[in-house]
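ok, trying the design again with the full structure, not the truncated one.
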């Protein structure tokens, strides 16, 4: 993604889903199984509603989605509680303690990792700590109308995966996305946090491979 890793930092508006389209076109990939974790899920949904013929199936993991509002007082409280939990991170960002802010992100979102996987995630977060102060997402432009308003249009086989130890608010998003994508499947992976593929890799791989195998079975 632009602004992360060794990618150039964006200086003007851009669209992640168009970047994905450009990459697949460059690679001469006509259609694909699209797997997205967290913000990657948001990109996958943007891509799916804009380029439906290029998506064989969707695997959405702890997914974000553009254009959705809080669905209930219970969800609002869940996000209020999370905001309170992350208040020290906001202070750290204001005071340019970006490494500390990145570590608080990992503590919140990757609470069920093994020491080895946590160390790996923390290194990635620290390498990208600049985003805490200058998030490239502020220049990202999503489709209009937003993907959440168009979930009923999605015809690709879809599985929505969420960890039972993910941030509480994410559970509401998973339920909502699942309920609005026709024929989608939802899977809760026990003992997994937001980054399901790293906190419970064996369980994650099994669910995804089983799902993809079924999408290829003759109807």
């Amino acid at each position: 993604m632009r602004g992360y890793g060794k990618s150039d930092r964006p200086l003007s508006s851009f669209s992640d889903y168009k970047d994905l389209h450009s990459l697949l076109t460059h690679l001469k990939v006509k259609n694909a199984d699209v797997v997205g974790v967290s913000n990657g899920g948001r990109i996958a949904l943007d891509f799916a509603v804009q380029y439906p013929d290029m998506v064989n199936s969707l695997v959405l993991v702890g997914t974000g989605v553009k254009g959705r509002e809080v669905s209930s007082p219970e969800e609002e409280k869940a996000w209020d509680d999370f905001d309170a939990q992350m208040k020290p991170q906001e202070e750290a960002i204001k005071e340019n303690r970006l490494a500390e802010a990145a570590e608080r992100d990992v503590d919140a979102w990757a609470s069920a990792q093994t020491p080895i996987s946590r160390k790996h995630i923390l290194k990635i977060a620290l390498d990208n700590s600049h985003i805490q102060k200058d998030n490239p997402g502020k220049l990202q432009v999503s489709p209009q109308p937003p993907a959440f308003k168009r979930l009923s249009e999605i015809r690709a086989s879809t599985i929505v995966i969420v960890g039972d130890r993910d941030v509480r608010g994410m559970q509401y998003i998973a339920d909502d996305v699942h309920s609005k994508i026709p024929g989608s499947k939802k899977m809760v992976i026990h003992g997994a946090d937001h980054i399901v593929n790293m906190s419970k890799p064996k369980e994650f791989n099994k669910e995804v491979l089983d799902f993809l195998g079924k999408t290829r079975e003759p109807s």
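Keeping the full-length input from now on. The chain is about 45% helix and 10% strand.
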